Amino acid sequence: MNTVFSVVGDESYVCVCAAPSPKEIKGLKWQGSAIGTAEWGGVLLRDVLVAAGIDENDPDIQHICFEGYDEDISGSTYGASIPMYKAMDPRGDVILAYEMNGKELTRDHGYPLRVIVPGVAACRSVKWVKKIEASRHESESFWQQSDYKTFSPNVDWDNVDWSSSPAIQNMPVTSAITDPPPGSVISRDGDDDLTVKIKGYAWSGGGNGIVRVDISVDNGHTWQDATLKKVNQQPGRSWAWTLWECDVEIPKGHTGPIEIVAKATDESCNTQPERAEGIWNLRGVACNTWPKLRLIIKE
Amino acid sequence: MNTVFSVVGDESYVCVCAAPSPKEIKGLKWQGSAIGTAEWGGVLLRDVLVAAGIDENDPDIQHICFEGYDEDISGSTYGASIPMYKAMDPRGDVILAYEMNGKELTRDHGYPLRVIVPGVAACRSVKWVKKIEASRHESESFWQQSDYKTFSPNVDWDNVDWSSSPAIQNMPVTSAITDPPPGSVISRDGDDDLTVKIKGYAWSGGGNGIVRVDISVDNGHTWQDATLKKVNQQPGRSWAWTLWECDVEIPKGHTGPIEIVAKATDESCNTQPERAEGIWNLRGVACNTWPKLRLIIKE
Q: What is the spatial distance between Cα A105 and Cα B111, in angstroms, rounded to a whole number?
């Protein structure tokens, strides 16, 4: 192609998959580590579509569909789509990436070209891109039609109607406690005033920044503020995660197991649900309940 | 002005204020009725700003500030601001309205001109507009700087630092049960299979549509799907509320009080928190906990 595309760099995006669910689900057992932030370099998808003659006001184009080079064991090609308005939004920052953290993409990350759709579940950020199609309809792939969707907790494999729920795009606000490891033993060494430094990340979809992370050692009865390590991002385009840390005050005299919970709030004032029971879904996706860390406090 | 502005009609927007909080707060006691959906007619704010020579790429313009004609008892003029990117977003649908439901605005609704900022807390939809200013800074008004903000539950009037929290713009997902009235007595009339029709609304900020409303009669242990009355809205621009209803199955043999709870989920998979304890804030704003309805079931 002879068209010059603007190259997007110096941007941090998060690829986020779903989070852990405490009830039985089918599929990958996602954990808090199914997320990552990197600097992606590439061309704006919008520029590619405009250069290809796509008219953003064409009512027959509602979705941009991607196909990868990867196939599952049945020979089906991986595919996904995003709404046209996200693809064409000058502030949507959807790119076709060929660089990650300043280096050529590796094979595992989608060499030679992958889509990066910031703010959206990473299942739409198709790797090893083979084909891009402007369409009236969503991708017909299994993963768009019958996989990454949420349902009411009363829906299970015997009564699920996949067409009744929209494909997940933007993800909800979430967070994780990443340090220290679960079950760590912390010794008071005779000190009555004990604080434990805990660390983690928080993130929300749709470009919503994180405004607060609250920490509790008494299951949400009282709270302490974590300190956020804010990344400089444009308003409404908070694609990167926010790392945080907190010197958690352990109650005086407490010994034995203690459970620490966290809860993030995003710019739309959305926050994480306390229990999974109300958001359980058969695929276990978009589970953003309060993360919990169990520590052992010794004398 | 001689410029012709496009008139926005056939659109439904919600003005939403904050929701009820079960713990003591200072300020208005918002209830589930501090919300409304109407068809607003007016001119796009974006068109007015462009006609006035405002350059959306000017780094010195980050906020659009509004001032009304109304003053409080101290003589302070009501004011608020929204981010420049929302004001200029062609899909943001911010208008200067002079019509409501096809008729000239009434005085109570902001005659002759009010701002309508869809998807955003209605405190930014300034009425009786006197002045519009493009600025590097947010509105200096009390209501922007020291009022409509959320804090951690550990922040109270003795330790609040208003500058530490951003002014609320987009609101979180919420819902209400509006019918039947609380405390209604429902008679089984000897029937073992009893259903009660309940109705309500659900809404979310930022243009996020409602994908589901779940109803529970056992405090979230099991759920029933409500039927949504979807309004035709463009993707990512779901500004109107979604009305819903559900024929709730009352457990066989149950008599006496029963508590029905609802929970909405939006397109970003955000949902409502179960308890207010984790989101309590000193002004009681953005409280979007599960709505509850108590009924009395008679033999």
A: 57
Nearest residue in chain B measured CA to CA from A234? B85
Q: How far apart are CA B39 and CA B37, in angstroms?
A: 7
B85·A173 Cβ contact <8 A: no
Cβ contact A153–B222 (<8 Å): yes
Alpha helices in chain B (DSSP H): 45-51, 84-88, 142-145
Taking CA atoms, what residue in A is nearest to B225?
A152
The verdict on a CB contact (< 8 Å) between B225 and A263 is no
Cα B88 from Cα B54, distance rounded (Å): 10
ipTM of the complex: 0.92
Kindly tell me if the per-residue pLDDT of A1 is higher than 60.
Answer: no
> What six digits make up the tokens of B239?
């500004």
Cα B199 to Cα B148, B243, B261, B294, B299: the distances in Å are 29, 8, 12, 14, 23
Cα B155–chain centre separation: 24
User: Which of B132, B150, B165, B157 lies closest to B64, judged by CA?
Assistant: B132
Asked whether the beta carbons of residue A165 and residue B236 sit closer than 8 angstroms, the reply is: no
Task: Identify the residue with better confidence: B27 or B174.
Answer: B174
**pTM, two decimal places:** 0.92
Whether the CB of B17 is below 8 Å from some CB of chain A: the reply is: no
